[in-house]
């Protein structure tokens, strides 16, 4: 379990950013909604109040003058009425229009009265009451009121239109200024609201992120192996519940890991003890089988075959015990490096020659010495295990190639050993497990000479040197194992001893 720095920064910044953005969005939406509702109500109230006042004052002015005119007013009467109305409301910049049939009268310069729409005129003719409409012309707002003059307006008499209609056009400049001021006030109020929301979001994010960061730090300590890590729990909210769950999980994990370590230690001690106890009787058995091998030619066929079988199985058991002893030393951290400055190419030749493989392996070695500071014995084990594995489970030709560095590695710092074969290769499902202990890629290998520890021991020896090993399939068939070893240093994974000797070999 790892927690990269970028992921940690993204967690903190991302959660804080989401909280701040969330609060800001809520604040903006709330401010916009409240502002829109407030603006609508205020605008409606202002315009309604202005409209009612204008209509009332207009009606009062008309009612005060209409009885003084004839039932069928002429052009002069219309002009006189409009002139009196305009004079009475001269300070208000009201514009009046009087109509009676085809007659029209306005005061002052001729006005087209385009604000008086046909719809408004039709409504006035069909309704014996004041009709109003708000219109915009050239970016300005106007209130247009149409008032028919009626007779018989007592409670007992239905109003009867006289045909005389007066129109009033009122500029709503002051109302528009008030509405604009209201919009500006709402816009200005949004900035403090947004700032307050961001401040609250930061405070909330700080409170939320504090336990989250503590949980992240605790998880990283757990990943680093500190299984006794616990969180301080306070409160009863969801984060406190998460902290309690983490503590319970950490306690259960610590107990499980402790039990696993105890069982693993017991298994290691058991394997080491069994291997140690088996070495003495195996030594005696090996000595006896050596004597029997020398005399097997004088025995009958059945007895000789049995002797050879006992000798082979005894040798196999001895190799298995040696491998188990080697693995137990790795597990106990007691594996040591005896470093020496050697010619790696010469060491590879000796490994192949000592096992009788020169005729079975094609080598590609440098012409001159290729020196590196390694453990000669462990290098011999690495080469022998890889070549032996290729000879047993692969198919010829088996090729061993030794180079100083590669296309990705500098020549003066690394030695690269590559072992290839033309066999069936390694199944893709087996590649991730090929260096695990007792793992065999095929069930057919269960009864083979291999113990399933050779590649695991090889990987451990390379790790001690600070190197790397990988396995892959060849594009044309077969397997390829690549070993990369540093030339000038040894790993600190195990105890390292220096040994300086002359010559090129181990």
UniProtKB/TrEMBL annotation:
Listed EC numbers: 2.7.13.3
GO cellular component entries: plasma membrane
InterPro entries: HAMP_dom, HATPase_C_sf, HATPase_dom, His_kinase_dom, HisK_dim/P_dom, HisK_dim/P_sf, Sig_transdc_His_kin-like_C, TCS_sensor_his_kinase
Chief localization: membrane
Basic and acidic residues biased stretches: 496-506
Location of the protein in the cell: Cell membrane
Keywords: Kinase, Membrane, Phosphoprotein, Transferase, Transmembrane, Transmembrane helix, Two-component regulatory system
Catalytic activity: ATP + protein L-histidine = ADP + protein N-phospho-L-histidine
Residues spanning the membrane: 20-39
MF terms (GO), sorted A to Z: phosphorelay sensor kinase activity
Enzyme class: transferase
Keyword Transferase tagged: yes
Gene3D superfamilies per UniProt: 1.10.287.130, 6.10.340.10, Histidine kinase-like ATPase, C-terminal domain
Residue stretches making up the HAMP domain: 206-258
Span of domain Histidine kinase: 273-489
Keyword Metal-binding among UniProt keywords: no
Chain spans, region Disordered: 486-506
Protein name: histidine kinase
Organism in which the protein naturally occurs: Streptomyces spiralis
